[in-house]
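Predict the 3D structure for this chain.
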Amino acid sequence: MRFLCLPGAYGSAKNFSVQLGPFAKYMEERGLATFTFTQGEHEVDPPIGWEHYFGARPLYRFLDAKEGDAFETLRRVRHLPRGLTPEATLRLFKDNDLSGFPPDRLTTAINCVSQAIDEDPEIDALIGYSEGAMLAASLLYQENKNWEEKGIPRRIKFAIFFSGAPPLVPNGEGVASQLADEVGTVIDIPTYHVFGSNDPLVYSSVALYNVCNQDAAGLYDHGLGHLVPRDSENVKQLGELLHDTIVTINKKSTAGTDTPYSLTSSQKRGAGRWIRHGDGLGGFGG
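Done. Predicted structure below.
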């Protein structure tokens, strides 16, 4: 399996290869996967106060977000009422943050990633972090739609999302998040959702999980914040959980089937810590 890896906002291919390094090394040493990295086309400066947080410049975004910065939501999320579902939480931001976002900018970003996939015929899986995870989900939504409506074969057979967000789609003069209580399942390939229970944006990761095929979606809580875990314990646990999943998907791919793969109970939940319905995030039990 070969992963195309998409960094978060204010990231780069070079910096993301360092962030993901321990996990990639673990997987490569066991012959489970290889990794290639891409980045957005829009060079950006980090938000004020975060100048030294994101690593070496230049830094990039996939989305051409000329208005504001990507950390406005972080500043506002601290004042949210508790007990909301992930979908209800995202709706608090949708009107201000998405309805006026030009849909052609989203299309351009998706096309950028699609081009990277087309240029490497061995790519058959995606890893996305934060903005990169949202964009990966948006591309998977489009691939699934093209498969269902036009019979265009899907390239991507597995995706891992770190601190993800639900897919965006064009909606009139703006874009809209695909939320489970409105649209149901929109991504049916196997997916794995890695998040931290201390991430202030954890509701966004769960909202992405909720629109994926629940029989083929796994969850792992590393217990940290909005980041890619690099410590040996989390890397080992995550790698062990993914081993059988990747081996099985590869076997099904060799057999030439496009039937969605179902994860076992242990593959879905593994050894991580899991958020319960009572935590106000909904979508899965404890």
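The beta strands are 2-6, 34-37, 42-44, 59-61, 125-129, 158-162, 168-171, 174-177, 191-195, 217-221.
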